[in-house]
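Hi L., both proteins are below.
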Amino acid sequence: MRAVPVRSVQLMSETLDGSRAEMYADQRPVVFNESDVRRFRCVVNGSYPTPEVAVYVGDDDVTDQFVPDVELVRDGVPPYLRELYYRLQLTNDAFFIRHSLTSI
């Protein structure tokens, strides 16, 4: 089976009380206030094989702080015209935003 490119990537965040939500796209930089605690969800649609996604805060890889949920989607008329792709969602329900300084 041939590889299927990613169709969309969405990053959503909201305050823990649900009073303010934001959606980010187009690979633009995202800026938050230090010490904010927010709910984050990243959804990647339309990839085959399973997409590899990493979440960074500055240069720090924080992917392990998110819970992955992967689903194989079967679209189309079975069995011959069915398109297979993955939907991956990374979630952190209470992500604490902080910046750590390292000395050289």
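That was the first. Here is the second:
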Amino acid sequence: MVQSVTITDADYIGRLAGRIEKIPPNGDMMISFSGAAEHIELVFYSGGKAEEIDVIQKGFKTPSTGFNSNDDYEKEVYAEIDAILFPAIDKRVPKVRGLTLDYGGFSLCYKGAHFEDMAPVTLSFHIDQFDFSDSKGNTQSIGISAGQLPPQPFVIKGTGLTLLTFRSNNGKRIYPDFFQVVKGDGGSQ
């Protein structure tokens, strides 16, 4: 085993399970692989029962025991799981509440979001909360607001890193379910 992650965020688990359910159940090809093949085992627990899903060589093993060929949707779901297991600079990572992700020289934990209503003023905000920890154990609490304007890139003090929560560094929308850590100031969003 190279990496193991336990996720307790029920909202995220529901979203991921829903995305996996959309993968076509009848694979159109078989693959052969050795014991050295990349293998990810997803186990979902509910009501004392476990449901296991195998991902082998970046493909989801279907209920028909086959695999799907050339499925862009499946590749996106795989990339999401890979980002949780092996987070890295420039990877688009799903927001999973309470899961600390180790990037090597630092870690980042999405703490969740809360809503602030500034009534009677007509402003309201959704604020994403993150905890950033460097290799020395120094931590920063980060709050990124989204309201009438989209969330702006957040430059993490003294690190040369920027946290993106609206658009990725290649311009793809990642709000509200993903974030990305990039080097530099993140460019204009």
